[in-house]
Write a structure and sequence with these properties.
This protein is mostly helical and 41 residues long. It contains 2 helices and no strands. The protein is elongated, with a radius of gyration of 17 Å.
Length: 41
């Protein structure tokens, strides 16, 4: 049985992966912010 832990996902991601992930998070934040603004009206 190996005592090595699996590599952390973030350390194995390429720059392109990270940029795509960041764009997706930004979009999600914009959607949630718009929903909160709509609720507050």
């Amino acid at each position: 049985m190996s005592t090595e832990s699996p590599p952390d996902r973030l350390t194995t991601m390429t720059r392109e992966d990270l940029e795509a992930y960041a764009r997706a998070l930004r979009t999600e934040v914009e959607v949630l912010t718009a929903r909160l603004a709509a609720l507050g009206e």
